[in-house]
């Protein structure tokens, strides 16, 4: 394994912000993080709390989080944005297009706020997520192309800080504002902010030598995946990106509805997330940068993995105690700081494993896998909280973080400072013997069947646990399967449909991995 020798020194958040305004390139990249962060605040914070305030049940709110799936699958259409682009301003053109779309979607939210319908809110949330994920693809690619090598380290901390501020503005601050001016005006203000960012996009610095697009759509689609999956630890790293923050993602998925059900006011929740949360996150980012630089990326990932797991205990204690403002602020502060530390170290990892020649699509792939855990945590979080109650739910999230640490051990045991970079251009050929098409299809189908079966088993177990809690009866897995396949409410049909969808995703992933890593065996022509 080769050592990482030329990684730029990581600066603190405040130093990064100061350095970011020493050139217009850095300032452009940093300020574009603001429209990038706002949509996630809406999807993760404002919209779930809005639905809870409208009386929508917690399980439906959990399933509504699936509207954020575009964040996790943006790598699917990112090659199209690499291959095709508006003329004259390749990256900024795409950014501007999706900022217009975001403006229109938030305007539609403002109109819908007068009498929200769950189906329409789900459609608009999906449109918001798609436009936001597409904007992120273009902004990340723009940053890769416009920044000089010695500017990249300075941009990391500043982008994270501005992104977080924007996320909390559109999330926690919007919740507080909605209590005073209503949701319609609140969403209208966010639409105006997106429209204003078009001015920044128009005047942002253009790369001095824009990267040439891939020569074909096939090259744009296939080469980035092959480049990563021929990394010696590709499968472990991909799984780690999903599992590392899963415990944190589960706890965060329904925090605002949880606090609302506990009896905290919109002002309490907004103050906790907008003030305590932002401050704790920035402090966590600062600590994460210092610790990662001092002890190495591998050790930092270990330390922050443990911290993220332990931090969830604060919410379990709050669920037990009840309404207690100091305890709520303490729990939110500890969790936000731990989340910032883990996200900071994960950001360094994404930069370390991305191949520069495939930066746009590959970074979209890695960030999509990373976001998949956050997106898919919503439905199981809602089902678990419904079945177990809030205290037991938060206690259960803690051991969920252990698989991520086990995966980390597989490619970066404790005591190892750094992680091997991806193969350089010309390295990393196919591993082992090429697979036949039949072998790839068979293994993909096996993965699909296994994923579907596990999904049904988990859903039936949760249905049985809910019956134990609600009806005070003994645990009966067979009864759980019976309740699963005879859903009493329309929303419960999602529990029946979701396992096959999960199975298809797993099966396709298995087939794609085998093809990219080993290659396909060409059939011999017949005489």
Notes on the protein architecture:
- The protein has 527 residues and is mainly α.
- It has two domains: 13-411, Up-down Bundle (Growth Hormone, Chain: A), CATH 1.20.1250.20; 437-518, no CATH class.
- It contains 24 helices and no strands.
- It has helices spanning 13-20, 24-31, 33-53, 58-64, 78-83, 90-112, 118-146, 152-181, 183-203, 217-229, 234-243, 246-253, 255-262, 266-295, 297-311, 313-321, 325-353, 359-376, 378-388, 390-397, 402-411, 437-471, 477-484, 493-518.
- Helix 3 packs parallel to helix 13 (255-262), helix 6 (90-112) runs antiparallel to helix 9 (183-203) and helix 10 packs across helix 24 (493-518).
- The longest helix is centred in the C-terminal third of the chain and has 35 residues, at 437-471.
- The chain is globular, with a radius of gyration of 23 Å.
User: Roughly how many Å is the radius of gyration?
Assistant: 23 Å
Tell me which CATH architecture of the largest domain applies here. Up-down Bundle
Order of helices and strands: HHHHHHHHHHHHHHHHHHHHHHHH
What fold name stands as the CATH topology of the largest domain?
Growth Hormone, Chain: A
The portion of residues assigned to helices is over 70%
Give a quick set of tags describing it.
2 domains, Growth Hormone, Chain: A, 527 residues, mainly alpha, 74% helix
Element layout with pairings:
Layout: H1 13-20, H2 24-31, H3 33-53, H4 58-64, H5 78-83, H6 90-112, H7 118-146, H8 152-181, H9 183-203, H10 217-229, H11 234-243, H12 246-253, H13 255-262, H14 266-295, H15 297-311, H16 313-321, H17 325-353, H18 359-376, H19 378-388, H20 390-397, H21 402-411, H22 437-471, H23 477-484, H24 493-518
Helix pairs in contact: 1-8, 2-8, 3-7, 3-8, 3-9, 3-13, 4-19, 6-7, 6-9, 7-18, 8-9, 8-14, 10-18, 10-24, 11-18, 11-21, 12-19, 14-15, 14-17, 15-17, 15-21, 16-17, 16-20, 19-20, 19-22, 22-23, 22-24
């Amino acid at each position: 394994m080769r050592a990482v020798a030329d990684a730029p020194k990581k600066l603190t958040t405040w130093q990064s912000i100061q350095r970011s305004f020493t050139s217009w390139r850095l300032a452009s990249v940093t300020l574009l993080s603001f429209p990038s962060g706002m949509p996630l605040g809406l999807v993760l914070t404002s919209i779930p709390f809005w639905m809870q305030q409208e009386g929508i049940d917690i399980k439906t709110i959990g399933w509504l989080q699936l509207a954020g799936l575009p964040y996790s699958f943006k790598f699917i259409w990112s090659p199209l944005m690499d291959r095709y682009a508006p003329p004259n301003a390749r990256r900024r053109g795409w950014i501007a297009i999706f900022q217009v779309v975001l403006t229109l979607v938030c305007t539609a939210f403002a109109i819908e706020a007068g009498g929200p319908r769950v189906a329409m809110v789900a459609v608009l949330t999906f449109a918001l997520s798609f436009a936001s994920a597409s904007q992120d693809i273009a902004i990340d690619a723009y940053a890769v192309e416009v920044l000089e090598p010695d500017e990249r380290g300075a941009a990391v901390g500043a982008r994270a800080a501005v992104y977080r501020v924007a996320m909390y503005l559109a999330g926690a601050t919007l919740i507080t504002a909605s209590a005073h001016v209503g949701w319609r005006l609140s969403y209208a203000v966010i639409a105006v902010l997106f429209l204003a960012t078009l001015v920044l996009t128009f005047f942002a610095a253009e790369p001095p030598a824009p990267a040439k697009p891939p020569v074909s759509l096939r090259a744009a689609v296939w080469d980035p995946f092959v480049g990563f999956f021929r990394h010696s630890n590709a499968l472990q790293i991909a799984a780690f990106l999903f599992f590392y923050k899963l415990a944190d993602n589960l706890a965060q998925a329904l925090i605002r509805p949880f606090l609302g059900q506990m009896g905290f006011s919109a002002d309490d929740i907004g103050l906790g997330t907008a003030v305590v949360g932002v401050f704790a996150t920035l402090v966590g980012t600062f600590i994460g940068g210092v610790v990662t630089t001092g002890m190495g990326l591998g050790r930092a990932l270990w330390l922050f993995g443990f911290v993220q797991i332990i931090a969830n205990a604060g919410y379990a204690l709050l669920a037990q105690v009840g309404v207690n403002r100091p305890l709520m602020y303490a729990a939110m502060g500890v969790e936000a700081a731990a989340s910032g530390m883990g996200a900071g170290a994960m950001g360094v990892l994404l930069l370390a494993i991305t191949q520069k020649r495939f930066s746009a699509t590959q970074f979209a792939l890695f960030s999509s896998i990373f976001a998949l855990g956050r997106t898919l945590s919503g439905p199981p979080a809602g089902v678990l909280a419904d079945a177990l109650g809030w205290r037991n739910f938060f206690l259960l999230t803690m051991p969920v973080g252990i698989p991520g640490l086990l995966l980390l051990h597989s490619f970066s045991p404790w005591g190892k400072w750094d992680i091997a970079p991806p193969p350089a251009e010309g390295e990393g050929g196919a591993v082992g013997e090429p697979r036949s098409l039949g072998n790839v299809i068979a293994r993909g189908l096996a993965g699909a069947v296994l994923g579907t079966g596990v999904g049904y088993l988990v859903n039936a177990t949760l249905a049985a646990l809910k019956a134990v809690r609600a009806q005070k009866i003994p645990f009966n897995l067979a009864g759980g399967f019976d309740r699963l396949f005879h859903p009493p409410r329309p929303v419960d049909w999602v529990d029946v449909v979701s396992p096959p969808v999960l199975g298809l995703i797993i099966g396709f992933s298995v087939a794609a991995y085998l093809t990219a890593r080993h290659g396909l065996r060409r059939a011999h022509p017949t005489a």
